[in-house]
Every structure is written in structure tokens, then in C-alpha cells.
Write a structure and sequence with these properties.
globular; mainly alpha; disordered C terminus; 2 strands
Length: 327
């Protein structure tokens, strides 16, 4: 193959890999917001916890920071989910008593505290210099094969999470979550433990976000404060879920791939701008993403793939009774 063809294949593989990683994070947000109505504006905090946990556990020994465990990558990913889940439990016990916009303020405040803690505690995370040399699965293979195999791994993880969430959504657990989202008081009156169910959704979604952070760290082979900025780990994930279709797992995946593709393509678009506009390129890209979101929502108010609500079942053998004046 020519260098041009190889370059195009590598670009497509990279696009799908990053789209898949963001799909993981969007699925985590869908558990919280799409299923249960929890307004989590602190995605960056759980992303950072997962990314740094896996990086610390899987890298070799280094001076000036915690590390040297050199554990296998799967162990790091599982640990990333566990630490994100523990943090979510602690945060959820405090913040989930809040509602709507107050919950958003609480989660974004605590997430920023976590993110700045990881940024400034150099003994733990190497501070602003970040953690380099993070192992990447299949990196011993030739470049193209390595990239393709890592993409397959990411897409496989997306598929497993999707199937698991679909199974849960169509089970009694998912129906309870929807009931809580629609009317908490009615769900509580029906005997459901609303507070426990909300905490479950918050922990599960945060664990999936932590896994997305770990995948991102292993993909880049580096994690630093810039990678955990809210723009790239909170704002864009919300856009992905809203554009794809909140409450629909397939919509969360489609939105992630679509918005990340647009974000990547806009990089080429802003390169052709005059030099004086170069420093504003990131803001122009955010504007273009916002414009796309507005166009999508004008055309599809519930996203590209809206939530599919189950139809009420009609008991077999019971005829529909026509209304009478006595009813």
C-alpha cells in the first residue's frame, strides 16, 4: 500500500478509536441523565480519576511521583472503574440530595476540586508535567496492526457496555430508573427506594466514565491536566448525548461518533484561516459544534435517535371495553 492509503487508514482507525472512547463516556452519562435524570456536570472529575488510576498502576517506576507498579493494562482499567465508583459513592451520598441545577452545581464543583487536586499533587501525578510512558495494548505489533487491534478492543468494550445496559434497561431495574426520572414521588409511593436507585445509577455511570478515562490515557500513552479540561471531557460529552438522543444507548454511541468526527474535521477547516485567527481556532471549533447541535435539535428535537419508550402491554384474552355513558 502507498503511504497515502496507509495514512488515510490510520486516520480512519484513529477517528473510530476516539469515537469509541467517547461513546463509552457518553454511555456512562446516559445511565445518569438519560435513564435516571441525574444532571452530572462533573464528568471531568471521574474521567480524571480513571485516567490517573490506570496510568499510575500500569507505568514503570519514576522519580517524583507515585508509580512503579507496572501492572497489566486490564488490571489498571478495572482499578480505574473501582476508584471512580468509590469516588462517586462518596460524592453521591452528599450531592444526590440536591435536585436539578443544584445537583449540576454540586457535581461540577466537586469534580473541579478533584481535577485540581490531581493537577497540583506532584507526588501523586507528577503535577503539570503529567504521566508519560503509559503502556498501550498491542503496541509491540507493527504500527497499522497495533492501531487496528486497539480500535477493535475499544469497539468491543463499547459493544459489551451497550449490550449490558440494554439488558438492564429492559429489565425491572431499567423501568424503575425511568419511573424515578419521570416522577420520583410516584416511584417512592410505589415502594421503590428512590435514593438507593439514584445512587446506583450515579455510581454505575461514573464507573463507566472512569473506564473511558483509562482508555484515553492508554490511547495517548500520556495523561496530563490538559486532557482533563471540562471542554473535552464534560461539555463535548453532553453535546454528544443530546445530539445522539438522550435515553437511547444507540443514540449515545451515534452522537459520540458523529460529534467527534465533526470536531476532527473542523481541525482541518480552521487550519486554512488567516494567522491572526489561529489563536482563536479552539473557540471557532466550539462554535461550530454548538451550531451543529442547534441544527440537529431544530430538526430532531429529541436527538438523532430518540428514546424508545416501551408500549403498555394489553392482557391477552381481555377485550377492549367500549366506553358508555355510565363510565
Amino acid at each position: 500500500m502507498s503511504d497515502t492509503v496507509v495514512g488515510l487508514i490510520l486516520y480512519a482507525v484513529s477517528l473510530l478509536t476516539m469515537g469509541g472512547i467517547y461513546a463509552v463516556i457518553a454511555l456512562g452519562l446516559n445511565v445518569q441523565w438519560g435513564f435516571t435524570g441525574l444532571f452530572n456536570a462533573g464528568i471531568a472529575g471521574f474521567f480524571a480519576i480513571g485516567a490517573y488510576t490506570s496510568a499510575i498502576l500500569t507505568t514503570a517506576d519514576a522519580e517524583g511521583r507515585l508509580g512503579g507498579f507496572d501492572l497489566p493494562v486490564p488490571v489498571g482499567m478495572v482499578a480505574a472503574m473501582l476508584t471512580s465508583g468509590i469516588a462517586a459513592w462518596a460524592i453521591g451520598r452528599v450531592c444526590l440530595r440536591l435536585r436539578s441545577d443544584y445537583l449540576a452545581i454540586g457535581t461540577i464543583g466537586i469534580a473541579e476540586i478533584l481535577r485540581l487536586f490531581l493537577k497540583n499533587e506532584a507526588w501523586l501525578t507528577n503535577g503539570v508535567r503529567g504521566i508519560p510512558g503509559i503502556p498501550r495494548p498491542f503496541e509491540s505489533l507493527p504500527l497499522l496492526a497495533s492501531q487496528v487491534m486497539f480500535m477493535v478492543l475499544v469497539l468491543g468494550i463499547v459493544a459489551v457496555i451497550y449490550l449490558a445496559l440494554e439488558r438492564g434497561l429492559n429489565a425491572p431495574w431499567g423501568r424503575v430508573m425511568r419511573a424515578i426520572r419521570e416522577n420520583e414521588m410516584a416511584a417512592a409511593a410505589a415502594g421503590k427506594d428512590v435514593e438507593r436507585q439514584r445512587l446506583e445509577a450515579f455510581i454505575l455511570g461514573s464507573m463507566i466514565m472512569g473506564l473511558g478515562g483509562a482508555l484515553m490515557a492508554h490511547s495517548f500513552k500520556f495523561i496530563g491536566p490538559e486532557a482533563t479540561e471540562p471542554l473535552m471531557t464534560t461539555f463535548i460529552v453532553w453535546v454528544m448525548l443530546i445530539a445522539g438522543g438522550s435515553g437511547n444507548n444507540l443514540g449515545a454511541i451515534a452522537g459520540a461518533v458523529l460529534i467527534w468526527t465533526i470536531w476532527s474535521v473542523t481541525e482541518f477547516a480552521v487550519k486554512g484561516l488567516p494567522p491572526e485567527w489561529a489563536v482563536r481556532s479552539s473557540y471557532i471549533r466550539v462554535f461550530l459544534i454548538g451550531l451543529v447541535l442547534q441544527i440537529v435539535l431544530q430538526r430532531f428535537s429529541s436527538g438523532l435517535l430518540p428514546e424508545r419508550l416501551p408500549k403498555p402491554a394489553t392482557p391477552e384474552g381481555v377485550p377492549q371495553r367500549a366506553g358508555t355513558g355510565d363510565d
